């Protein structure tokens, strides 16, 4: 390293969102509202699935896991963003930054793997309906969820350890609203080649393979429906898969848009908007996509909330 008396950086400044100071309060209210909606929506789904025994099927247990992961994913970045919008010096300590990065990668990865598990679940349900209960037995479900946890722990740990190895000395202003891996790499003063290689390879493995698995399972679902075409079968398949497909396209659409679109010099705003999409908007929309279109969820909502009503209203 060239410098002699370079200080080692102990905290970073998170520059936050590129918005005017006059609009700060408006955006604060907007993000607070979206975060509260996320928390409430996902907690409602988790509670409903827990309370209603009709929903104790693999599909809903996975959905409840997805809601949990959405809730945590959003809680890793949004509360800190809200706090920074109100403070004069939006700083974050070095250890806090790496911790945020770790949990961001962990819950992002978990969400990604759970979406694959859910696609597999739909694939078995539609292509092998008679064997569904034997294939998706409770042990198999639990091990699929456990595998998702192990894989995301592994990849988050790998990226975080590689980041901890780097030295930060000159610049400590992160041009982002959370400790994003690529934003941090731009500030490092040691060699980042290994990190970039690992991000490229792991990013490919962790996003492209799951995405392909989901596509394959949907292709098989569609072809199995077309083999025995009946209006009822088609409607049933699309009502069970439609919401999953919308969540999948929302999640992969923003991430693939971010990483595959060529970035120009002026891409910070685009990157920030995309990051807001997948940290704030997607976790907020998931519960609505699932519950508004789903009559089982609506039924559960009625059963759970109307159980005690008749007595108190008589
Ligand atoms: C996640 O899925 C597993 C396996 O199906 C289930 O036992 C567990 O209760 C779920 N966790 C949550 C938070 O819903």
From TrEMBL:
Protein family: Belongs to the G-protein coupled receptor 1 family.
Tree of life domain: Eukaryota
One GO MF term: G protein-coupled receptor activity
Protein name: Olfactory receptor
Locations listed in the record: Cell membrane
Keywords, comma-separated and alphabetical: Cell membrane, G-protein coupled receptor, Membrane, Olfaction, Receptor, Sensory transduction, Transducer, Transmembrane, Transmembrane helix
Source organism (scientific name): Chrysochloris asiatica (Cape golden mole)
CDD domains given in the database record: 7tmA_OR1_7-like
InterPro entries: GPCR_Rhodpsn, GPCR_Rhodpsn_7TM, Olfact_rcpt
Chain segments annotated as transmembrane: 26-49, 102-120, 141-158, 197-219, 240-260, 272-292
